[in-house]
Amino acid sequence: MNYKYLLFILLMIWGCAPQETTKNQAPNVILILTDDQGYGDVGYHGNSHIITPTIDSLASNGLRFTDFYVSPRCAPTRAALMTGRHAEKTGVFHVTDGGYQLAANETTMAEYFKKAGYQTGIFGKWHIGDHYPYLPEDQGFDYSLIHRGGAVGQIADHPDNYWDMTKPLSERKQNYFNPTLYRNKEVVKTEGYIADIFTEHAIQFIEEQQGEPFFVYLPYNTPHDPYQVPQKYLDLYQDLPAENLDSTNGRSHRLSDYKAAQYVYAMMTNMDDNIKRVLQKLQELDLQENTLIAFLSDNGPAQYRYVGNLRGKKGMLYEGGIRVPAFINYLGMEVGEFELPAAHYDILPTLASLCNLNLEDNIDGLNLLTKDNEELQNRSIFIRESNYMQPYQEMMVRKGDYKLVALEGGQQPVLELYNLKEDPYEENDLQEEQPEQFKALKNELDLWYDGLLQAENLKILPIYVGTEQENPVRLSRHEVVDSYANGWFSKNYLGYYLLQVTSPGTYDIKLTFRDTIQSPGKLEMKIGPVGSSVSIEEVPVSSYTFKDVQLKLGEQVFQTWFQNNEEVFSPFYVEIEKR
Question: In whole numbers, what is the pLDDT of the chain averaged over residues?
């Protein structure tokens, strides 16, 4: 046993264990989540070229997690963070394709805080549901200001923000400035730079609480692309040296990686300034001593740049794709490094221990401040990344110093074993040298995967139509299931929508095409076993509405497409409205 570590944990617990408090003495909580910020995109991880003094100071005066894991992409990380559970169990196993909606029967962090008397607000990127009953307001937040989809300008976001990647870069909209957002489901046009806007509204929310405890979830959408930032921040990095882009495991870097690094660093410095504004407001309101700040990123960097020589990037299960900056800063807690492996689903039980939240018994994460140090020492951390539930398809388990990575499923799966203490850059596969260790971790991975398959919510969750809460419902390609097209911008993005019709009756279904129909053909629509079609003779046409469509109660598979002698393609948006 690591007795030095045990002593550290005990000292930390004695220093920060919450005393019996009244409602008004409960610690406030600000949870900051960044988007596509890699392990090296912060000064305190050895990056001497990035300017993040506020984040660095919070980290150096807090509990820093050296080996903190998240999912390789954003939506699963957000689901695990909000529920303290493996994301797949909550219905979130991907970022699109119907696999990113947090089941309505899951209890979120916001709901736990609300039950404990907190006012709850979210300001930023949600990305675990764009429709009722999966929106923040349906999942425990009193106030929300968000964009929709996985990034501002993606097709699931408001059409005003649409970032058309088929156009040259110079012709695309600067949608991080003056974006159209959703405030408690109401569409609002805002002014300013997006990270500044989210910060301003979070500060206003804090000011309005007047002594009531608050939980602020501040999931910035930066430094995710598109790479847009006020020029004064970009100017700071015009002379960024190329050697800042370390050659991760021998990979060469492209000019586009270098340009992305300049923008990412500029966006991180803007975020650092915004976090400073929040801290200044806490000090002005005399709240700094009773406010806990937790900070982490949702996955690794989207390009190759400085990551402390870790291997990989976003979307990969190597350390560079899933190990991120993370810390908790709260007055009374011991300052130092937490060197055991930890993960996104540990944040909720850890905050619960400090804020007296009563959690359900289905939590997968552990309280990182627990006295049961042996459990933390011996537990395994599991992460996966794939839209396909298949054994050994993008999965990993970390236990102690060892990590088993399963990269490909199928008849001959590819698995690799690493000792991260001796080989932190994952260069030496040990499965042949240490077969017993390999077998033990593989057995753990098998058991975990088998358990996931039994989860109630591991399935495509439907889009609800015909509700009072949302009518009409505007669907995008973000929700299309089983599309085989290469990218959202393909003409033939074919697949299906899974609908839950809550109210039978007469509906109008409007189809809108990005690629205008230029030649005559047939427009097809199929709901369950019933299909209908219409001939399109007068062209060009950019939209068409099927009127007086009768929908039956219950779950329905919905498909639609246009076809002529030359091509088959699908609409960009589908709007379903109950009459």
Answer: 91
